[in-house]
Amino acid sequence: MKTTGSAPSSTAVSPRWNAVDCVVDFNTREKRLGLLTETLGWVMAVAFFRRAESETHYLAEPSELDRRYHKSILATLVAEGERLLTQAHRSRTGGLSKVLEGSS
User: Fold this and answer.
1) What is the total count of domains within the chain?
2) Which of 5, 31, 53, 4 is closest to 103 using CA atoms?
């Protein structure tokens, strides 16, 4: 799991969690894209996460590893959402052009 900084156990990791983790990891590391682009990427990552969540937690019994990935990625998405919200509030004083240009 890239989002927690620790290596997963020897249990095979679901490809869906690897994909979600990759999208979340990219969106949380690339902070030079501008607020609008970062927010759209975050929304996409949340949608991707929700799909994996449905498949592993609602349509099937989640494994222990599924639960760990779910908890870790959810915490990352919440933290990133809070960062984006804070950035949006800060950029309100600079106008829409700052948001679109990626200035903060």
Assistant:
1) 1
2) 31
Q: pLDDT per residue over 29-73, tens digit each?
A: 766 778 888 899 999 999 999 999 999 899 889 999 999 999 999
In a domain, 6, yes or no: no
CA 71, distance to chain mean position in Å, is 12
Give the pTM.
0.70
Beta strand residue intervals within 11-95, DSSP E: none
**Domain encompassing residue 97:** 15-101
Residue 10 falls within a domain, yes or no? no
Between CA 81 and CA 60 the distance in angstroms is 28
> What is the dihedral sign for C-alpha 10, 16, 19, 25?
negative
pLDDT value at residue 6: 43
Residue type, 11: T
In a domain? residue 75:
yes
In a domain, 1, yes or no: no
